[in-house]
């Protein structure tokens, strides 16, 4: 989605439309616009798959193990296949993503009745119901985890539950930000009506900014709630700091050597 912002939203917002008219007619413009739909739907499905996996582990710990990599890979593969299929279906039934530079908003251009029905039946419902399902499922997981945690006695089990708690906190944070982003995006006309926003494009710009924040929150939450990722990030910063100090020290030593040679040459020349 951020790629769409960089390749479509920002150029068409800042530059005159006459400069980009040729670009708008190319296949690259269509691909970059569809990148927003692709990224949005893929993020929804991946987040939904992660939530289903966490919910299954918390609810049925005897049936679902915590370290089943094959199950995660299947979730990822299915999410990609569904997203690609949805893009193909959109193209077949003339559902196109476009950008309105005057209103600072992305919109769907639907050129067929069947495309309109498919869009309303899947895309809109997916964007509307998924945040609610995610939010409810994570609340249920927290309640279930808290109840079960009182019965857990062994150190090994406690470690597993602590790991699951970190995953839940990360998913809950992403779901919360996604819920807000979805409300702003899908109910923009309602917000405009309630707050009597005279210039709608400024609110649309705010929504676009919030979409970027939502995308970034996925990576940020990983470093906040995951100790391994956080430790790796701290290690990288230490390495960069050490390398910078080493470069600074080497440069300083080279300067001192050059200065000493220059002083020695001047002393020799003045004799």
From TrEMBL:
The chain crosses the membrane at residues 38-60, 72-93, 129-147, 206-225. Keywords: Membrane, Transmembrane, Transmembrane helix. SUPFAM superfamilies: Family A G protein-coupled receptor-like. This is G_PROTEIN_RECEP_F1_2 domain-containing protein. It comes from Strongyloides venezuelensis.
């Amino acid at each position: 989605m951020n790629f769409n912002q960089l390749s479509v939203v920002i150029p068409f917002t800042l530059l005159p439309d006459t400069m980009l008219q040729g670009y708008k007619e190319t296949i690259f413009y269509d691909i970059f616009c569809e990148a927003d739909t692709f990224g949005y739907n893929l993020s929804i499905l991946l987040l939904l798959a992660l939530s289903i996996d966490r919910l299954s582990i918390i609810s049925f710990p005897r049936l679902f193990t915590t370290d089943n990599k094959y199950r995660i890979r299947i979730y990822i593969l299915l999410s990609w296949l569904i997203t690609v299929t949805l893009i193909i279906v959109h193209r077949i039934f003339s559902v196109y993503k476009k950008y309105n530079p005057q209103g600072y908003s992305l919109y769907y251009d639907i050129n067929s009745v069947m495309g309109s029905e498919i869009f309303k039946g899947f895309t809109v419902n997916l964007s509307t119901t998924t945040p609610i399902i995610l939010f409810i499922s994570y609340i249920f997981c927290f309640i279930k985890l808290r109840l079960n945690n009182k019965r857990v006695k062994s150190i090994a089990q406690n470690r597993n539950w602590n790991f699951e708690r970190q995953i839940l906190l990360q998913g809950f944070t992403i779901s919360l930000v996604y819920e807000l982003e979805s409300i702003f995006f899908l109910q923009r006309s309602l917000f405009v009506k309630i707050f009597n926003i005279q210039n709608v494009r400024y609110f649309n710009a705010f929504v676009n900014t919030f979409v970027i924040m939502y995308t970034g929150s996925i990576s940020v939450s990983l470093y906040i709630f995951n100790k391994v990722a956080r430790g790796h990030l701290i290690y990288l910063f230490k390495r960069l700091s050490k390398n910078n100090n080493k470069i600074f020290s080497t440069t300083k030593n080279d300067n001192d050597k050059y200065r000493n040679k220059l002083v020695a040459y001047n002393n020799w020349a003045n004799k």
